[in-house]
Write a structure and sequence with these properties.
The complex is a heterodimer of chains A (394) and B (98). Chain A is mostly beta strands and 394 residues long. In chain A, 0% of the residues lie in helices and 38% in strands. Helices cover 22% and strands 19% of the residues of chain B. The chains are: A mainly beta (394), B alpha+beta (98).
């Protein structure tokens, strides 16, 4: 029987929640990396026992952790104890070394971006927000970092190299931080075209490469953001999350700061699909595993009131690709609920009856084994949840 | 041998308990002690000092013989109490977070 493994990153450690295909009884493992912020964990589609985790701390900086046994044990890639540095050989202790490419070979090395006061500010590495393993190579993984840039490792996380064409695009100096920092938080790999990727940055917008990361172009036409001087500017949009169905990689769904958006031409043109949502502010968005026109969001009251409307936690589902939405509330708290659901904290499994999962800043992880019709908490009292990913295992 | 005391989270990363014993060849300084520490425990690289600049991370301090050495020159010789092993070189995480 199939199994599911839910990877949960929180403010104070990581948790792994496991169940069989019924998704009724859960085993809870953790906290792993207790006391550390775990921004994201994700498993390799090519080898589900290969997991990557981003572990961060205000004191000790960034750590990359890797598991080769499905999360039972973890290690920092390339950092065996007492392993001597080998000149010219494999470097050790570099799995947490993210250095921006400033070389001439990168074409247009950039050293600054726009700061809050309009001046130019140096790019400064802060943390890894998102890890996206390759669809085909377990040792290849992408990292979206703050300050926004895209890095890649091809040796299982031992070393990292920037794909500088993204920052080197003409718009780089105009990017500026949102309230949560200038983070690259979304990485989507096109399952049909290995040279195509999509990424999103707060607060710059969405970008696409068609040549495996060498060059990038902003794909923000159709977005409208009233909080920037030119609401339809090429960049400057606060994209919160983008989701994609594997069968239709050119169709993307976006939860923007305000507005839920859709494109059917790989981002060349977006249109609003907020429709009858009670509020179109929010962070997460995801797509049903088997129904590419079924989309999920969690509406949040506003950009200053980061909690559900009326204290009622409701997921909204559209079965029409947007515009027409239905509230899903069975099993979710419908009074006095003032949690948030952060941008990386929703995921779906691919079992026949699609499971949907999300985590809250109140430490609950909710699961629905029937596409959102009914919900139940897997756990109620974790630290604030930063990210949720799901693996469907044989 | 020089005794180094790590904060709890770095002991976990290094998979050690208690003090760490470090052998330093030549003059014992903050730089040479940290170099030797990172050579023995490469998983600590970047957690105490920046990977590139080798500057101390802002929320860490270095205490020696009941004095704060965080702002001393990295190549200043450490006291003989540390080089003899009578006193440890302490790496301290700042109290922060409320």
């Amino acid at each position: 029987m199939s199994k599911v493994r839910v990877l949960v990153g929180t403010r104070k450690g990581a948790f792994i929640l496991s169940s069989d295909g019924k998704r009724e009884k859960w085993d809870v493992s953790g906290p792993h990396f207790a006391g550390w912020e775990i921004y994201h964990m994700k498993g390799s589609p090519a080898n589900p026992d290969r997991l990557y985790a981003s572990q961060t701390s205000g004191w000790f900086g960034q750590i990359i952790q890797r598991s080769d046994d499905g999360g039972k044990t973890w290690h920092q890639p390339g950092s065996a104890t007492n392993e001597p540095p080998a000149p010219g050989g494999r470097p050790v202790g570099m799995s947490n070394m993210f250095v921006y490419d400033a070389s001439e070979q990168s074409g247009k090395p950039l050293t600054t971006h726009q700061w809050y006061d309009g001046t130019q500010h140096p790019w400064e590495f802060k943390r890894v927000w998102h890890l996206e393993p390759s669809l085909t190579e377990p040792d290849t993984v992408y990292a979206g970092i703050e300050d926004a840039a895209l890095f890649r490792s091809t040796d299982g996380g031992q070393t990292w190299k920037e794909l500088p064409g993204l920052r080197g695009s003409d718009t780089g100096p105009r990017w500026q931080p949102g309230a949560g920092g200038m983070c690259l938080h979304t990485i989507l790999l096109d399952p049909k075209d290995p040279r195509r990727m999509f990424i999103a940055i707060s607060a710059a917008g969405a970008f696409r490469t068609d040549d495996a990361g060498k060059t990038w172009k902003p794909i923000n036409r159709g977005l409208r953001s009233e909080h920037i001087p030119d609401p339809t500017a090429e960049v400057g949009h606060c994209v919160h999350r983008i989701a994609q169905h594997r069968s239709r990689p050119n169709t993307l769904f976006m939860q923007k700061h305000w507005d839920v958006m859709r494109t059917d031409d790989a981002g060349d043109n977006w249109r609003e699909i907020s429709g009858d949502l009670p509020t179109d502010f929010g962070f997460v968005i995801d797509v049903h595993a088997h129904e590419p026109e079924t989309v999920y969001v969690v509406p949040i009251k506003s950009d200053s009131e980061h909690f559900p409307l009326e204290g009622k936690l409701r997921v909204y589902r559209s079965r029409t690709g947007g515009n027409e939405w239905e509230p899903l509330s069975k099993g979710l708290p419908q009074s006095d609920c003032y949690v948030n659901v952060l941008r990386d904290a929703m995921a779906v499994d691919s079992l026949d009856s699609c499971g949907v999962y999300f985590g809250t800043t109140g430490g609950q992880v909710y699961a629905s084994a029937n596409a959102g019709n009914n919900w139940a908490p897997i756990v109620r009292d974790l630290p604030a949840v930063l990210s949720v990913e799901v693996q469907t295992l044989p | 041998m020089i005794r180094v005391v790590l904060p709890q989270h770095l002991r976990t990363l290094a998979r050690v308990s208690g003090e760490v014993m470090i052998e330093v060849h030549g003059q014992a300084t903050q730089r040479s002690v940290l170099d030797a520490l990172e050579n023995s425990y490469p998983m600590l690289r970047g957690t105490i000092r920046d990977h590139v600049t080798h500057e101390r991370r802002p929320f860490l301090r270095f205490f020696v013989c009941a004095e704060d050495w965080s702002h001393e020159a990295p190549d200043a010789p450490l006291p003989k109490e540390v080089t003899s092993g009578a006193e440890p070189f302490l790496i301290i995480g700042a109290i922060a977070g409320g």
